Amino acid sequence: MKRTLYLIDSINGKIINSSLHVDALMPYISELGNIETIKLNIDLNNLNVAIQELNNKADIIFIVHDFTLWNNGSIDVDYGIFTKFLCSLWNNKNIFVFPTELASSGLIKSQFKENASLMTKIIVASESFRKILIKIDSGLGVPTNKIKLINIPTEIFPLVDNTKLKQEAKVKNKLILVPGMLHPLKDYIQLFKDMMPIIRKYTYLTICLSLIKHPTIVETEAWKQFDKLQDYIEKNKLQEYFRVSFDSSNSKEYKYLLRLSDLVVFPHDTSLDMYNGSIIDALGMGKAIIASESLFTEDLVKKTGILLYKYQNELSFYDACSVILENKNFRTILEQQNIEYSPNLSYTNVAQQYINQIKRF
Prior knowledge:
This protein has helices at 20-33, 47-57, 67-70, 80-87, 106-116, 127-134, 163-168, 188-201, 219-235, 252-260, 277-284, 295-301, 314-326, 328-341, 347-358; strands spanning 3-11, 14-15, 35-42, 60-65, 94-99, 121-124, 147-149, 174-182, 205-213, 242-246, 263-266, 289-292, 307-309. It is built from 15 helices and 13 strands. The protein is α/β, with parallel strands linked by helices. The strands form two sheets. Strands 1, 2, 3, 4, 5, 6 and 7 form a seven-stranded mixed sheet that branches. Strands 10-9-8-11-12-13 form a six-stranded parallel sheet, with helices on both faces. The radius of gyration is 21 Å and the shape is globular. It is 43% helix and 20% strand.
């Protein structure tokens, strides 16, 4: 008998940004596992409608879980709405949850620990975060058998010479790609300043920011942030060095820029991230990657060619960029390591891991 999996990937009509990789995984789970997959939006103001549909039709419920969205954008408000949702389903449903952030709030930690008893499996993308969830002194202490480590999936592309693509795009310089999200708290102007020593030394570089909208802000606010960056570039005559791309709806522009790029840099604080989908996408293309130290990247660096630096340490960042830009052979080694690891991230491989878990229940 064909089973039905419901994916909760939007709250009050807002697509959870972190769900994009999981969303794309559903057709593979459906085909390989003979499982019907359905996406469902949760209206927090009319929760009983969703609960009724899930109780009547779902065999498995998969929740891509962003603490801030379940709490209407603030982690300080009552977390009980998610608890109510779980309690209404847990009696006769298998609930898989993929938490996307490590909440620092003590209240949310304690409630997450309580809710873990209502979840069939908690999927994590990092061994370090698995250890945090099971540690008693972290405020969580989730039972080990509740947690399963499964990679984030991405498309796998063979690494190809990007010379022709760059010629078509009229990019003459080496291209450093910097992915990110537009949000008032993210200081990209400071990033411009931090990268100027690299620009001064390597005059043949173009730095491209590939930005998408942060899920907690409205699109008009994102465009304001984008315009502010463009104004700063023009005012300081940095057009020769910096380009900013903003794709408000999806990651197609980012994938294109990935193919163009010579190096991908993640100069952000990722210490609270349960995973970073943009890093996974870059790995899938076998790109040379520089990222700040975090639990997620420190796990990956043991298996890939990612080069790490200390966040907010200008010298560490400068040295990491320099060693790749000055040593083509070293960059090739990093790329090869990422190419060799990338099959682990394929949709087929990751889907099969989910199917193996689902079939156990």
